[in-house]
Amino acid sequence: MELNRRILKEATENGLIGEQQAERLWEFVNERNRDTPSFRTTHILYYLGGLIAIGAMSLFMTLGWERFGGWGLFFIALVYAATGLWLTEHFLNRKHLPIPAGITATFVVVLTPLAMYGIQAAMGWWAEGRVYREYHTHIDWRWMFMELATLATGAVMLWRYRLPFLVLPVAVTLWYMSMDLTPFFFNDQDLLWELRKLVSLWVGLLIVLLAFWVDVRTRHDKDYAFWLYVFGVIAFWGGLSMMHSDSELNKFIYLCINLAMIAAGAMLSRRVFAVFGGLGAAGYLGHLAYDVFKDSMMFPFVLTVIGLGVIYLGIVWQRHEKAISSKLRELLPLAVRELIENRH
């Protein structure tokens, strides 16, 4: 639960703490969370400006930039990267502004694909007309060189600055690689689509496991796992949901996986699991309503009873949450137990 002024005011009115204590506590919490990403006006401006600058050199790159040629793009990327490094190292980091420092450091990593593309274009690797802006919209195994370079740059920048936002381009690149790996290893066009779904599924699962490992390792530190969870879940759930099956058993297993994702999201306090798990569960219920029980009069009534039963389960859980949670957490390793306690 998030602490805010209203809660402190209610605590004061109920005589739990004095007004001066409430004010000092609020100042302490405010100062402690000053560098934690949140929906504050300052942070929104940081991220909005940063995403505009990052998008300008990636998603929103215009075709006109191709006129600079390969070496022109490479040196432009180099100059931009040097500017980003200078801002990070000599200005923002020294002034103890970790959020904007993380954004400018991420800007440097995002420039890596452009620099690599410039080198490849100068060497004639893209002679048939592929342009840089298609890096974000088209699947091509030759993007792999740009992706590997981006991962290497991201790893170096993370090692140097330890800023969580730097994980964003690393996570996005791993997601891109999950799509580009299939044409790299296989040329069979008939199997390509099915293989892409499988690769997305398994690579996404590996990224989620990597995120969990990072989460456990940094449980007493900043949140480095957030972006890995986001893109890992997107890759895993996307691959899983696009798979086709005529078996009702397989569809039910799909529902169970999505319910397990919701449970994992609740346990780890990671909403991305709950969001996609909820979408998957809703999709399965839609399948039952429109395909399996489309002519049934009882299905809506049964579904209503199930929904009310789930609500009742929530009431029972709330009454005994402390005892049940305590017993369940005793079964977990110490590191995982600490992670859950720190995230709640």
Q: In summary, what is this structure?
A:
The chain has 344 residues and is mostly helical. It has helices at residues 5-13, 19-32, 41-56, 69-92, 98-110, 112-122, 144-161, 167-185, 189-217, 226-242, 248-268, 271-292, 299-329, 334-343.
Please provide a written account of the structure.
There is one protein chain. This protein is mostly helical. 74% of the residues lie in helices and 0% in strands. It is built from 14 helices and no strands. Helix 8 runs parallel beside helix 10 and helix 10 (226-242) packs parallel to helix 12. The longest helix is centred in the last third of the chain and has 31 residues, at 299-329. The chain is flat and about 65 Å long.
Task: Describe the secondary-structure layout.
Blueprint: H1 5-13, H2 19-32, H3 41-56, H4 69-92, H5 98-110, H6 112-122, H7 144-161, H8 167-185, H9 189-217, H10 226-242, H11 248-268, H12 271-292, H13 299-329, H14 334-343
Helix pairs in contact: 1-2, 3-5, 4-5, 4-6, 5-7, 6-7, 7-8, 8-9, 8-10, 9-10, 10-12, 11-12
Radius of gyration: 24 Å
Largest sheet: none
Helix content: over 70%
Q: Tell me, rounded to a whole number, the average pLDDT.
A: 81
Q: What is the number of independent domains?
A: 4
Give the end-to-end Cα distance, rounded to a whole number of Å.
8 Å
Query: Secondary-structure element sequence?
Result: HHHHHHHHHHHHHH
Structural class by helix and strand composition: mainly alpha
Model regions low in confidence, pLDDT < 50 over at least 5 residues? none
Report the sheet-strand fraction.
Answer: under 5%
